[in-house]
Structure formats: C-alpha cells, structure tokens
Design goal:
This protein has eleven helices and ten strands. The chain is an alpha/beta fold. The protein is globular and about 65 Å long.
C-alpha cells in the first residue's frame, strides 16, 4: 500500500508569495497567499524589483504559516516543490533559493515545477475524478495556451498567443478606460454590476489562419485604444460599460471557439480552464454554455486555484514525485521555460 505523499510547495513566479501543503496531489491541507496587488496597483502593473523584494520579506512567514495551518512541520513533508519557470527571474530566484535551502537542510527531495503545468494541475484539486486526457485553455496575464493534456506529465501545445496574452490585454484596456490594475477582475466586476451592451462595438476577432489554434490580442487592444482616441478627438461621449462589455465579448468568443474546435478535432469530450483569467465569470459562463451544447464535460478550478497559488504547484509536483523525478540543488530559474520542457 502506497503511503500518503505530503508536499510543501512554494510559488513566487510573479507578485504572489505563496506556500501550500498538498496531500496526494488533490487534497489541499493549507494554501497561504500573500498578495502584492495593492502595491503594484500604484504603478499600473507589476514592478519586478519591488516584487522580488516583497517576496524576500514575506516568504518565511508564508511557509511557516502553511505548515502551521496543515498542522505539520518540515519533518512531516515528503518533498519540497517550487516554481522554477516561467516568470520574473528575480521573483523565481527567491522561491527557488528558499526551496533549495529547505531541501538541503531537511534532506527532502526537491521538485521543480513549470508554472503553467501548475495551472493545469489545479483542475485535479478537490476533484480526483477529473483525469487526462482533456483540452485545457490556460489564460493568464502572461500566458494564453491551448493544450492537449495527454497524461499527468505529458502535454502538447496546440496553440499559444503570438503577442499579448489575454490577461495582458485586459490590463491594458482597463488602464485605457481608467479602471486601474489588475484589469481583468475590474472589467469583469464593471460589466457584472453595471451591465453593458456586448454588441455595442464590433471589435475585431483575430483567428490568425485557417485551422490555427494560435491567439493574438494585440489587435483588439489597439482597436480599443483607437476607438477611445477617436471619440475624444471628436468630442464624442461613449459608454465605458459598453466598451468593456464589447471588448470582453470579443476576447471570450475567440477563446471559447478555439477550445471547442480543438476538442472536436481531437475527439476529446473534456475541457478545462486554468490561469487567472479563468476566474472571469463571463468566460466561465460562455464556456459552460458551449460545452453544454456539445455535451462536453467542463472542469473549472475554484477562483483561488486559478490565480497564482502554491496548491497548484503541490498538485503538479505529486505527479513528478510518484515517477521519482527529482532535481539537483543546482537547479536554476528559467524565466522563459517552455511547457513540457524538461531540464
């Protein structure tokens, strides 16, 4: 009989200092997150140097709190997992250095985890019945990927953004209409609480070329900026609610249609969402409706597991642990690490 596997996981790829203890890849015993959103909101986006310094200030507390909440200590965990890419190199190094120090001191194995793999594996948390294969749409501030998840450790990238990620476009459009940072949640909240005509403005939908699963969101970002500038130059008023709703509709339409198309062509009846933008209520609704029409099963993690967190890293690490895939202490940070790349 296989004993339970408890993994202490650390995530510092961007502006969230997070630690968690995860049992057997699906059961979260603790998930502590120290957010820097209020700090970076003053600058309209994440400032890498500030993010790194705040990670240094917060990481010890976050790890100790995660262990305390799980009613465990360092001796009780079976491995230490950490995000080693992609992300901001300075931020990654804080988490990586801490994880290696813990691994060395406790003689526990070290597991490096790819950040996007972590987002995908968030779909297994609290849901042991959801298993590969499936199509996963990963949408965040830095990444937009359409992935064929063949197995727990096997991924095929079907498409990805050629320029701006979806979350990045949300942030920039929110800034244009004065909502501030982070843009995604603010646009979602604006449209949800105050309404807005999704068909009021026909912003472009970028489908690239026939049969392509790649994405492009720089065009719609520019279209929004041009629309606002033309209105201001002509002294014409416009509805921020309509603009936000129309922009959001255009982005979501492309995301949903490509995910459904991929599932149909791959003959896979399961779709999952992952990443911070997967918290968007309109994306969840649109994907749910599309999946229902096709009789597909849709799985979406709880919002806390969509945004950056360490529980998803602990989940991904479990599937590395059971295959004895451990890392040496000379593991480095890789800010541009590709999904599926093994180092």
């Amino acid at each position: 009989m296989i004993n339970d596997v408890h993994i202490l996981a650390i995530e510092t790829s961007c502006d969230e200092t997070a630690a968690a203890v995860v049992k057997n890849g699906t059961c979260v015993l603790s998930n502590v997150i120290s957010s820097q959103i209020d700090i970076h909101a003053e600058f309209g986006g994440v400032v890498p140097e500030i993010a790194s310094r705040k990670h240094i200030e917060n990481i010890d507390y976050v790890i100790l709190e995660a262990l305390k909440t799980a009613n465990m200590n360092f001796d009780d965990v079976d491995a230490v997992a950490v995000t080693y890419g992609p992300g901001l190199v300075g931020a990654l190094l804080v988490g990586l250095s801490t994880a290696k120090a813990i691994s060395f001191a406790t003689k526990k194995p070290l597991i490096g985890v790819h950040h996007i793999e972590g987002h995908i594996c968030a779909n297994y948390i609290d849901n042991e019945d959801f298993k590969p294969p499936f199509i996963c749409l990963v949408v965040s501030g830095g990444h937009t990927h359409l992935v064929h998840v063949k197995d727990y450790n096997e991924f095929e990238i079907l498409g990805k953004t050629l320029d701006d990620a979806a979350g990045e476009a949300f942030d920039k459009v929110a800034r244009v209409i004065g909502l501030g940072y982070p843009g995604g949640p603010k646009i979602d909240k604006l449209v949800r609480e105050h309404g807005g005509d999704r068909k009021a403005i026909q912003f472009p939908r970028a489908y690239i070329s026939e049969g392509s699963y790649d994405f492009s969101f720089s065009g719609i970002k520019s279209a929004v900026l041009n629309y606002v500038n033309k209105c201001k130059m002509a002294d014409i008023s416009f509805s921020e609610n309509d603009l936000a709703a129309s922009f959001q509709e255009a982005v979501i339409e492309v995301l949903v249609s490509k995910a459904i198309k991929a599932a149909e062509e791959k003959k896979i009846s399961k779709i999952a969402l992952a990443g911070g933008v997967a918290s968007n209520s309109f994306l969840r609704e649109a994907m749910g409706k599309a999946c229902q029409e096709k009789s597909f099963l849709l799985n979406v993690p709880k919002p806390v597991y969509c945004t950056d967190n360490a529980a998803m890293i602990g989940s991904a690490a479990y599937y590395e642990f059971i295959k004895n895939r451990f890392f040496d202490l000379d593991l480095n940070a890789y800010p541009n690490l590709r999904l599926g790349q093994r180092l």
